[in-house]
Amino acid sequence: MVPTKTEYLGGGRILPPRVRGDMTASELVDGVFSAYNAARLREGARLFARKMLAAETTVAASLTGALTPGGYGISCLIPLVEAGFVDWIVSTGANLYHDMHFGLGLELHRGSPFVSDVELRQAGVIRIYDIFFEYEVLLDTDAFVREVIQASEFHRPMSSAEFHNRLGRFVAEREKVLHTEGHSLIAACYRAGVPVYTSSPGDSSIGMNVAAMALAGSKLTIDPNLDVNETAAIVYGAKTSGGKSGVLILGGGSPKNFVLQTEPQIQEVLGLPEKGHDYFLQITDARPDTGGLSGATPSEAVSWGKIDPDQLPSAVVVYTDTTIALPLITAYALANREARPLKRLYDRREDLVAGMRKAYLARLGGTK
């Protein structure tokens, strides 16, 4: 049935208030972000605060782009974790590596992208677009990682969540000594029991140092089978217990797919009944027409079973820079939602996997 004119014009009237100097971020988002991608950001902020942060929803966040070296771990991600607004994470290894600089008291500085990188190299300065830091920051962080993983507790295969939890404990201990508490995301996740996965363990300086220690006899390996099963079990456990699953995708890339592939793992591979994630919020500057995963839309994800088709009207994509949108969405959520009890999914990983394994073997007719 064709909608009537009244139905087409049923949206709120565009008549925003004048911007004032004393407006909060929440007031700006609700009152002034009236059209285009500002309106998508408003929709995304409301989706996150009003639906995804309901008590029964388990929220995953995927992190790509150089967020932590820009300080967005401290300013946004740690507050979200501590408020119970993010229950598990998939990140690039680079974000976790650069995050440790802050917990270790190492300095990063504002710089300029319009300088000679040859001169920076000669001066011993590393550049991430407009962020500068000494080359020694890398060397000191590398040395810390290698020192930590020499401990006997690391001399075996483990999931990336277990590895990052154990590493986060050492960073948290260093924070206490250096009085840098609250500066490291990986330490905050250790304290909050938030499991942190990386979809490409070798694709960062953390993985490079793990590989170097293997040359010296270390038995530490990151087992991708554990990661795939643990992440799928988190989603399966949330859904089969009567809850919902939401994904906050910051950027795209491999972490985006690793978060979303939990549903095809449950449905396609394990053959267990499921419909897809319930809520989808992505911040991206990638276009869908180039065929890359970073720009793939939630409607395309429905065809894979990644997103519940019944929930597609609630899915939001905001086409902007994560470093612009994330602080606004964080402020909006903190202003409009009370903190949630921590789910501490890290502590429940084995039970969640056991539950999924039991369902899988029952489907196969197994008895184990």
The span between the termini is 53 Å
What CATH calls the topology is: Deoxyhypusine Synthase
**Biggest sheet, open or closed, and with what strands and sense?**
6 strands, parallel
| Low-confidence blocks of residues | none
CATH architecture: 3-Layer(aba) Sandwich
Tally the structural domains.
1
Mean pLDDT: 95
Helix and strand sequence: HHHEHEHEHEEHEHHEHEHEHHEHEHH
User: How many DSSP E strands?
Assistant: 11
Identify the overall geometry: globular
Which value, in Å, is the CA radius of gyration?
A: 22 Å
CATH superfamily: Deoxyhypusine synthase
Oligomer: single chain
Percent helix among the residues? 40-55%
Give the class-level CATH name: Alpha Beta
The helix tally amounts to: 16
Strand residue content: 5-15%
Structural class: alpha/beta
Order of strands across the widest beta sheet? 7-2-1-9-10-11
Could you describe the 3D structure shown?
This protein has a single domain (19-95, 160-202, 222-361), classed as Deoxyhypusine Synthase (3-Layer(aba) Sandwich). With 368 residues, it is of the alpha/beta class. The chain has helices at residues 5-8, 25-31, 36-52, 72-82, 93-103, 117-123, 135-148, 160-178, 185-192, 205-215, 224-240, 253-260, 262-269, 298-303, 322-336, 349-364, and strands spanning 57-63, 88-91, 109-110, 125-128, 131-134, 157-158, 196-197, 221-222, 244-250, 279-284, 316-319. The model has no long low-confidence stretch (mean pLDDT 95). The chain starts with a helix and ends with a helix. The chain contains 16 helices and 11 strands. The strands form 3 sheets. A 6-stranded parallel β-sheet has the order 7-2-1-9-10-11, with helices on both faces. The protein has a 3-stranded antiparallel β-sheet with strand order 3-5-4. The protein has a two-stranded parallel sheet with strand order 6-8.
